[in-house]
Fold:
Amino acid sequence: MRTGVAGRGAPRGGQRAAAPTPSRAQRPSRNLGTLVRRGLHQNHEDHDRASGEAFAPGTLDDYLRRLEAAAPSPSSPSSSSGPNLVHLVGTGPGDPELLTLKAVRLLQTADVVLYDRLISSEVLEYAASDALMIYVGKERGLHTRSQDEIHELLYRFCASGKTVVRLKGGDPYVFGRGGEELDYLQRRGVEVACVPGITAASGISSALGIPLTHRGIADNVQFITGHLRGEFTEEKLRELANKVAFENTTIVIYMGLSSLPQMSRELMDHGMDPETAAVAVERGTMANQRTVFAPLGSLTEMVEDAALESPTLIVVGNVVTLCPLWRERRGEEVADKDVQKEMKEKRAGGERGTGPKKGEALLQ
Structure:
């Protein structure tokens, strides 16, 4: 019951309209080029898109110091002319066609764009041709810059009069550390505007045909992070298991790939039915999306067999049985009561079913 599914993020045809060229005080010179961060991430480099030459002279920090030296002093009449605003912009779950119009407009007018690992090259293409692109991505065991360094870059570019866009996958305020950046900047007198993005839970599940809530099956949904740092106590795990079993709850686990073996085992140890329907989705909504559908008790093994990689979103709950792909892989029409009756008769005779019993009972 494992399948690879083509995503819905096929490259768009045609050309996007050219953005108007904004006025850019103290625009980075076109010969700044690339501050290469080789060995940190093969697909991402800091760069001024207008050139491929090395920063001359010095580093990004040297360039920032020159910007700050050239910026008007706080007492200068022109000191209020530059922006004192940072835009936190969500890009959605991956498919560039799920960007908001506001996100595109801000990208086209930004002087500086700080972007994360999961931002696709198609999304980055919306940035102005001479924008300074700074990669600040993080992945397991490899952080190009610490969160404190990201805070400092946002503040220093903004204080130097630049139009700054902080680009984040999904929604900035859903497991995106946007709240930390908001707090840091506001405490320093910087205004922060957030452009919401479609969070992975709703974007990926909708694209697959999985309603996170459904009358009679799931009355509520809970988002949790798979980064286990002591917050999943015995009480919390038991509560999550009970919610799925008895309170018609859908659980969506962000960044849960590495912790899936432990989390699924502990949820079952605390009362969750091993036959609960689940799906793991790698690179959801993208053209290279892959999915693994399985009961929770088999999910870890099947994910390992499929060699799924990060980013992977996990959905656990009876709503997964509503997905057309789940039904297709099980070879059944869920609405066909005769088939439902036959499956229950097989179980009564000792044959192992291929899907979650609770889901089937609720769907009758």
Remarks:
- The radius of gyration is 24 Å.
- The chain has a mean pLDDT of 76.
- The CA atoms of residues 332 and 339 lie 7 Å apart.
